[in-house]
Amino acid sequence: MIEIKDISKSFNGRKVLDNVSGVFKDGETSLVIGASGTGKSVLLKCMLDLVSPDSGEVYYDGRPFLKIPEKERIDIRREMGVLFQGGALFDSKTVYENVKFPLDMLTQQSEADKRDRVMFCLKRVGLESAGSRMPSEISGGMKKRVGIARAIVLNPKYLFCDEPNSGLDPLTSIKIDELIQEITQEYGTTTVVITHDMNSVLSIGQNIKFLYQGKKIWEGDSKSILETELKELDEFVFSNHALNQLRG
Ligand SMILES: Nc1ncnc2c1ncn2[C@@H]1O[C@H](COP(=O)(O)OP(=O)(O)OP(=O)(O)O)[C@@H](O)[C@H]1O
């Protein structure tokens, strides 16, 4: 379980996160949603300690991530998997090498064990025969799958996905969403997905936190979001043309 408490952050005197709190449960896909510029990525960066919040704390299973000594923080980092926006693959490495990279950097495993783990993860995302290909030779959806395989290769407790559907067509997006949700349930990871994709919200939103101008102003699930009476959330949800027409 991850708990964030009263996270605030300003840039140049402008508050972009304002006392954001919440809980992300094990085995659940939690979504952080909101319009562009509302602070989603900054919140994710605070949770990963890539940006220091001005105040607040992030607890990983009770461990205060921002206050503990660096050595303990590194232990927690090893328990995290991150799917970066755009995949962030190394263009000069093969698919296999990309997935193996965290094992090379952070473990002392034998080459045989690493190979077994990489092949297991590639198989899990449906790419067991793509290991020798270069990122430039595969589609956007496959790149996301490679990113997911790399994010789970260290068997993380905590999985972070930053805009996992950006640049994908709707059908491929659904497949990536389903894969993230299946992995979350299979391995019991605490999964945090940053998105403004309403398809994701409706299909995998077990828990949804809505940010508006740096504040968390609503929390619920994919059923309750359609019945919201909160003006700001209603505008966000029904800015999706198809949904608005359905409502009409
Ligand atoms: N390093 C920084 N320095 C100054 N301002 C920043 C910095 N990082 C983010 N911001 C500002 O913080 C605000 C929130 O940005 P953030 O990237 O979190 O938005 P977002 O909700 O993730 O948007 P999007 O959906 O477009 O990615 C924006 O106004 C952004 O310009």
UniProtKB/TrEMBL annotation:
Pfam families: ABC_tran. Residues 2-238 form the ABC transporter domain. It comes from the Bacteria. GO terms for molecular function: ATP binding; ATP hydrolysis activity. Keywords: ATP-binding, Nucleotide-binding, Transport. Gene3D superfamilies: P-loop containing nucleotide triphosphate hydrolases. This is ABC transporter related protein. The lineage of its organism: Bacteria, Pseudomonadati, Bacteroidota, Cytophagia, Cytophagales.
